[in-house]
Amino acid sequence: MYLKQINPFESAMKQFDKAASLLKLSASQIAMIKEPRRITEVNLPVRMSDGSITIFKGFRVQHSIVRGPAKGGIRFHPNVTVDEVKALAFWMTYKCAVVGVPFGGGKGGVVCDPDQLTPTELENLSRRYFAEMSDLFGPNSDVPAPDVNTNSQIMAWMFDTYSMHKKQFLPAVITGKPLELGGSEGRSEATAQGMVFCVEEATKLLGIDLKQTTVAIQGFGNAGSFAAKLLNEDGAKIVAISDVSGAYYNPSGIDIAAAFATCRSNKTWLLKGLEKKTKCEKLSDPMKLLELEVDILIPAALENQIIEENAPRVKARIIAECANGPVTPEADDILEQKKVFLIPDILCNAGGVTVSYLEWVQNRMGYYWSRERIQQDLEQIMKKAFDEVFETAKSHQVNMRIGAFLLAIDRVTKAAELRGLYA
């Protein structure tokens, strides 16, 4: 993967600068909304199963709270850096703005390998992180959620830690919780479902029959696996999928049910051994998945996967960014020249934060909606946002990424100016 070669925060800043120049923002306007408002770094001492103490590094970045509480996931990964977390918080600000939910942007991370931790150690680390950051978090200040290598159980531990500190039942402090603790119906598949709604709109726009399309998906975690399942149910043919165990390809279509079964059979959720259980080949280079001749390519893994070097070899007609920042600014320019229709991350993967918003609303009301109600709201919000981004891009004669940033930056700028400067 190309993750370590490019600074994701620098990429995010380049994306911002392109849109800000088109909006002709003043230096003062840019100063108010471009850089993170707060960066917190902590050392997290955790008691291990053998009685020893290990120190883990943790981060929380609040990019903006102009339009509402900071919102963004917490990831556990050995390669987490502060620049990565800054970039992700930045994208969250504009992701929330592009779909019109009243949140700002935040993101958190812990440098660790969860696979090397026992369940007790993982719980201790999760609770320690939330306790050390408890002055930041709150239903009206900063509302985290799951991200890479975190899940509803970890959110439950974090919610409990906060509630015990406050001696109150406060489910709105965090989203992505189990249903039994105030989670929302439809949250698990929300990121993928939001992406599917965008893909449906894009194929209509381009005159493509979704049922006749071929799809390659990089990443088979929560977003990627649900993307495969939902698009398969829509009639699309999933010809390639991948995760850290490798990339698997079958031009006749991969058996998605078998892929799920393979992941469940492994100790961790991995596709390892899929080529032995189904009619597919394991690609010698997993990155070649991005260069397959398919109609729709879905990067659903990590940042900086399509870069200047491999972008010329991308053959997909549509790229749907289910991951955050999978395409670099330099690659964007190449893909635009190739007339690839790209659905940008701050629109395409906003289904997760949209249903997180609906969960937060339900928590605050103490009244919970059906899956059908959630799906209706998500579809309406995502398709409205897609149309607004497309119209903005069309009116400014720019691509969808710049269109999304133009729309979002304008909303954040107006909110900042209406609030004024407290001094």
Tell me the fraction of residues in β-strands, as a range: 15-25%
The name of the CATH superfamily of the largest domain reads NAD(P)-binding Rossmann-like Domain
* Number of alpha- plus pi-helical segments: 14
CATH architecture of the largest domain: 3-Layer(aba) Sandwich
- The name CATH uses for the topology of the largest domain is Rossmann fold
In the sheet with the most strands, the strands line up as 9-8-7-6-10-11-12
In short:
By secondary structure, this protein is of the alpha/beta class.
Map the helices and strands.
Elements: H1 8-23, H2 27-33, E1 38-47, E2 53-64, E3 70-77, H3 82-99, E4 105-111, H4 119-132, E5 142-146, H5 152-166, H6 190-206, E6 214-218, H7 222-233, E7 237-243, E8 246-249, H8 256-265, H9 274-277, E9 281-282, E10 296-299, E11 318-320, H10 329-337, E12 341-343, H11 345-348, H12 351-365, H13 371-396, H14 400-419
Parallel strand pairs: 3-4, 3-5, 6-7, 6-10, 10-11, 11-12
Antiparallel strand pairs: 1-2, 2-4, 7-8, 8-9
